[in-house]
Design goal:
single chain; globular; 11 helices; eight-stranded parallel barrel; alpha/beta
Length: about 260
């Protein structure tokens, strides 16, 4: 039987020599140095992301298909998301930790939205939450912010709306749809979100929204002109052999390296 490791609890000596990143810190980065957000789901990946200088660690609902083997994000539960958020926050990262609220956890009523958001903070020890949608989710967003929980917005290609969108398609094509996304971004800004993820929108629209609003934009498939970028840990390291979107940049091929290592074991 192998000797158990000491785990990923980080001592003060091991922590990156920087201040803890807060939601107001991210808000203040508008137009400044690019924000680096990494989507991670457990202690090992959170440790790497934090020591590599990520500003934000997002415990994303993509946990469903990246880690849990599900076909989409729609069936992951609040319990599962909080469980993985705990794993990330146990490492005591200096990066700001965001819990991603899964489908139907904020759709039914503002009260339920606050209750579920509160679980990410109280149980998961996250420091803010992210939810998808614009004016259609305004009541939930305002209620969560009123409960003194910072909120990150998410517009464009919103995976929880895959059935309504008819698939994972680029959003905001055409003048009217572009205007709607710009208006939604302003609605979120006025509601008090501290940042907005822009996913799967044309480069020009990503640039325009970034210029039109006062809160930072964090892009994934939204062009290079956003205030920051986000990638999934497993995607940027090439930890799997699954097909990914064209805009996903792979910085390593650890799937092949892992396969070779285990083959030679």
């Amino acid at each position: 039987m192998s000797t158990p490791s000491s785990g990923y609890a980080v001592t003060n000596e091991q922590q990156p020599k920087r201040e803890k990143v807060t939601a107001p810190d991210i808000r203040a980065r508008k137009g400044g140095p690019k924000i680096k957000m990494v989507t991670a789901y457990d202690a090992p990946s959170a440790t790497v992301a934090d020591r590599a200088g990520a500003d934000i660690i997002l415990v994303g609902d993509s946990l469903a298909n990246v880690v849990l083997g599900l076909s989409d994000t729609l069936t992951v539960t609040v319990d599962e998301m909080v469980h993985h958020t705990k794993a990330v926050t146990r490492t005591r990262p200096k990066a700001h930790v965001v819990g991603d609220m899964p489908w139907l956890s904020y759709h039914l009523s503002p009260e339920e939205a606050v209750r579920n958001a509160g679980r990410f903070i109280k149980e998961g020890r996250a420091e803010s939450v992210k939810l998808e949608g614009g004016r259609n989710r305004l009541e939930a967003i305002e209620a969560i912010i009123a409960a003194e929980i910072p909120v990150m917005g998410h517009l464009g290609l919103t995976p929880q709306s895959v059935n309504a969108m008819g698939g994972y398609k680029v959003q905001g094509k055409g003048v009217e749809k572009a205007k709607q996304l710009i208006n939604d971004a302003k609605v979120l800004q006025n509601a008090g979100v501290y940042a907005i993820v822009l996913e799967g929108v044309p480069t020009l629209l990503g640039q325009l929204i970034t210029k039109e609003i006062d809160v930072p934009t964090i892009g994934i498939g939204a062009g290079p002109y956003t205030d920051g970028q986000v990638l999934v840990y497993h995607d940027l390291l090439g930890l799997h052999d699954q097909r990914v979107a064209k805009f996903v940049r792979k910085y390593a091929n650890l799937y092949e390296a892992s396969l070779e290592a285990v083959t030679h074991f």
